[in-house]
């Protein structure tokens, strides 16, 4: 047995939100790889947990009338409960409010401050008083707070900085030596080009709120939540609490994260580690984001997928299977109930379920449910079959080691197809009729062996289902105590008693399931949602009055060079003067027919540049089915007249 180690982590989840599909995704992915390496005989350490400090948590707690610690204590239970339901086999659960972690963060802080990698400076940024948050200019939306939309003001704050700039070259050297450090490869390119553009020192302390680990040398500051959070991976591995464990498991072999937090993990994190004298992790894999039925998952849309619901309705393993099979790991994907049901019925009920049922039924029919006696060496057909199965199993292992879950599952399902083809080709029913009992024994024996191999393969993905399959082929012990060294043909003993085939999964009635789903969304909520949707489109008179609509006379019109859509118009807007506007009407009007027309324009629109020409307003036109007509005024009226 190999005596290697594997350390895998999930991000630690903020406790300002309850767990949803996105959180379950990374955690299940980490669980699968942890179970896989255990089955390979590795010493595995799998860490997950919660990120409990920071302004977001402080704010969420305040809104609920709780202290941040009370909120954390409440929400953490939701995560722990869900991980239990999802059969997550984490070896530890870290909370950043634990003493063991605060100690590590403060120790490291002191070390870096002494070294000069942390220094006191001044942070200048845009501050939103309402949200009590500093925002970098790049995150403002139309110059306003991206959270609440209010005005922000430029403020200075005393802050500690991490000397990230000093690590630019070291990082680039590290990436060069470890080109697979970030996966998928396109994400590695993103990271490298970001670092090449130049790294600035980053602010890593705050004085505007207090929910965090105090800076040990200056407690009026709290440590920035990311500096605190990232070091969870070090605390969890035993630093300052279990040095032997730490020596065994650090560096982490795989940090699984979502694409939105890549920069923190692929740039800041290795730089922090280099500064503190630790080896950087071996791999950071950034997966994509889930949308739900084509829309971004959001509380206001009430489309947040609660894994609890799916687990209760369809079982835990189909959920684990679906999320890793449906979307290539690394890409964005869409969760739809219909797709879930399709995969359930076709992959689990038809392919997997039928193979087992079919094979075991034949074992019962022809050999009374006993593994048939197998004698002699395999014939060529059988040899080829066995080789193909084992080759696919190797492919499965390579895929999972490359963190390509969907491909790993495809390899396993290829084994299922090989077995189904093998049944059809060897036609056991004819062998029986022709009394070719030795060949019949071999076919059935190989099928049972294939089922055993498939059970071992799917174990990391579907631990409960693999155990049930295990028991169907007559084992009474735990499948998790077996390793991939047992993946070969000829191991199961002849004479073993099989169990009567039972359905692994009951087919879902798609129509009924989708109709039930409709019912589950409570009607009043749906009503409210409709109301909300339509309300979004309603504006009041004051909002309408903000739009300055005027009559304007077209003086001149000419085509915009190199554009087949745009016409540049010179218009007279009475007391507002002459203006230039650019309009996308060239496919519907020729410049010659426009001068003299009295049109309607929005006169107080923020100017915009189109093909290098500044457009100082917008004309109104009606369009439908590719047709477009300008709004013009009936009869004569002065240019500049207001429209109300
Ligand atoms: N606390 C930080 C992580 C610190 S790690 C040292 C954090 N927490 S989070 O709770 O906001 O997000 C945790 C993870 O959930 C991220 O990896 C994020 O990508 C993932 N997801 C959140 N919504 C998601 C989807 N809709 N789809 C897939 N994953 C998504 O960030």
Quickly describe the structure:
The chain is α/β, with parallel strands linked by helices and 644 residues long.
Task: Name its key features.
644 residues, alpha/beta, Isoleucyl-tRNA Synthetase, Domain 1, OB fold (Dihydrolipoamide Acetyltransferase, E2P), six-stranded parallel β-sheet, five-stranded antiparallel β-sheet, 21 helices, 24 strands, binds 5'-O-[(L-methionyl)-sulphamoyl]adenosine
SSE blueprint:
Blueprint: E1 5-14, H1 21-39, E2 43-51, H2 55-64, H3 68-85, E3 92-95, H4 99-115, E4 118-128, E5 133-135, E6 153-162, H5 168-177, E7 182-183, H6 185-196, E8 202-203, E9 205-206, E10 222-223, H7 225-230, H8 232-236, H9 243-249, E11 254-258, H10 262-276, E12 284-287, E13 290-292, E14 295-296, H11 307-314, H12 316-326, E15 333-335, H13 337-367, H14 380-401, H15 405-426, H16 428-433, H17 437-458, H18 463-472, H19 510-520, H20 523-536, H21 541-545, E16 549-559, E17 567-572, E18 578-583, E19 598-602, E20 608-610, E21 613-615, E22 618-619, E23 621-624, E24 627-630
Parallel strand pairs: 1-2, 1-11, 2-3, 7-12, 11-12, 13-15
Antiparallel strand pairs: 4-5, 4-6, 6-8, 9-10, 13-14, 16-17, 16-19, 17-18, 19-22, 20-21, 23-24
Helix pairs in contact: 2-3, 5-6, 11-12, 12-13, 13-15, 13-17, 14-15, 14-17, 15-17, 17-18
Structural write-up:
Among the domains are: 349-486, Isoleucyl-tRNA Synthetase, Domain 1, CATH 1.10.730.10; 541-630, OB fold (Dihydrolipoamide Acetyltransferase, E2P), CATH 2.40.50. Residues 522-536 have low confidence and may be disordered. It is an alpha/beta fold and 644 residues long. The strands form seven sheets. Strands 3-2-1-11-12-7 form a six-stranded parallel sheet, with helices on both faces. Strands 18-17-16-19-22 form a five-stranded antiparallel sheet, with no helix packed on it. It has a four-stranded antiparallel sheet with strand order 5-4-6-8. The chain is built from 21 helices and 24 strands. The chain binds 5'-O-[(L-methionyl)-sulphamoyl]adenosine. Residues 11-14, 22-23, 25-26, 51, 229-230, 232, 257-258, 260-261, 289-290, 297 line the site of 5'-O-[(L-methionyl)-sulphamoyl]adenosine.
